[in-house]
């Protein structure tokens, strides 16, 4: 008999099934199709042989990201943001988060005056699209940098560490790892953690949906996130080995 409080039946500390499939886009220098359960995100890394205009002449490059959700990634069709003329505030916030997360583990001087753009397109959404995107984006970025290294385009090792992300929350009074949509939409507390392979914290986003959460609860969520990202980093290592 399943006594789990979670709609999926998972244990509180259990990730959804996660897969990382490389080289799924023919023309991109690096690509990865990442799946966190029913959340599927296509990540592609594209090399541009020029830095952003504001970085020219400084001897270093840049890594940035763009994020988008396909119209039928969700239960009901959502309008393409291009038709409204600009990305939503949520989209801008997520793509900036992905870019910050990747730059945290890249030596920008090593890539020279170039830019790598990582596009994260949500094919299907069931909660945790930003955390899945960051985890898959690292694989796409890794392969782009490997492509550059094979062509002697790097002055030094550019990738300093892994980076992965996972959501945590308090659902029905219990801290749980890797929320799907059913949990995310009903959680008392929702948080996203971005951590490096060596355990460094890149970013923490936490929101109380009802009553404020305590410091003790935050630390319990962080402990869950550390265990979860360790598993994600192991999957990244297996994917690129």
Notable features of this structure?
241 residues; 4 helices
What is shown here, in short?
This protein is an alpha+beta fold and 241 residues long.
Task: Summarize the structure in words.
28% of the residues lie in helices and 29% in strands. The chain is of the alpha+beta class and 241 residues long. The strands form 2 sheets. Strands 1-2-3-5-4 form a 5-stranded mixed beta sheet. A hairpin with a 2-residue loop joins β2 and β3. The longest helix is centred in the last third of the chain and has 26 residues, at 215-240.
Total strands: the figure is 9
Q: N- to C-terminal separation?
A: 39 Å
Q: What string, H for helix and E for strand, traces the elements in order?
A: EEEEHEHEEHEEH
Structural class: alpha+beta
What is the global morphology?
globular
* Sheet of most strands: 5 strands, mixed
Strand content: 25-35%
The mean pLDDT is 95
Q: Give Rg in angstroms.
A: 18 Å
Q: Give the % helix.
A: 25-40%
- Widest sheet: strand ordering: 1-2-3-5-4
Can you tell me the residue ranges where pLDDT is under 50 for at least 5 consecutive residues? Answer: none
Counting H and I runs of at least 4 residues, what is the number of helices?
A: 4
């Amino acid at each position: 008999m399943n006594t789990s409080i979670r709609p999926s039946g998972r244990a509180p500390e259990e990730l959804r099934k996660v897969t990382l499939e490389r080289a799924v886009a023919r023309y991109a220098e690096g690509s990865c199709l990442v799946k966190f359960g029913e959340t599927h995100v296509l990540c592609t890394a594209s090399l541009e042989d020029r830095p952003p205009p504001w970085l020219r002449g400084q001897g270093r490059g840049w890594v940035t990201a763009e994020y988008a959700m396909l119209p039928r990634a969700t239960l009901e069709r959502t309008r393409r943001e291009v038709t409204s003329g600009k990305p939503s505030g949520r989209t801008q916030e997520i793509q900036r988060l992905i870019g910050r997360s990747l730059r945290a583990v890249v030596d920008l001087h090593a890539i020279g005056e170039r830019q790598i753009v990582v596009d994260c397109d949500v094919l299907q959404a069931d909660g945790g699209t930003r955390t899945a995107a960051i985890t898959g984006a690292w694989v796409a970025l890794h392969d782009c940098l490997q492509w550059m290294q094979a062509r002697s385009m790097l002055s030094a090792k550019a990738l300093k560490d892994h980076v992965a992300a996972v959501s945590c929350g308090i659902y029905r009074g219990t801290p749980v790892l890797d929320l799907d949509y059913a949990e995310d939409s009903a959680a008392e507390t929702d948080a996203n953690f971005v951590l490096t392979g060596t355990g460094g914290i890149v970013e923490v986003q936490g929101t109380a949906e009802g009553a404020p959460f305590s410091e003790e609860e935050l630390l319990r969520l962080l402990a869950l996130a550390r265990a979860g990202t360790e598993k994600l980093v192991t999957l990244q290592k297996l994917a690129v080995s």
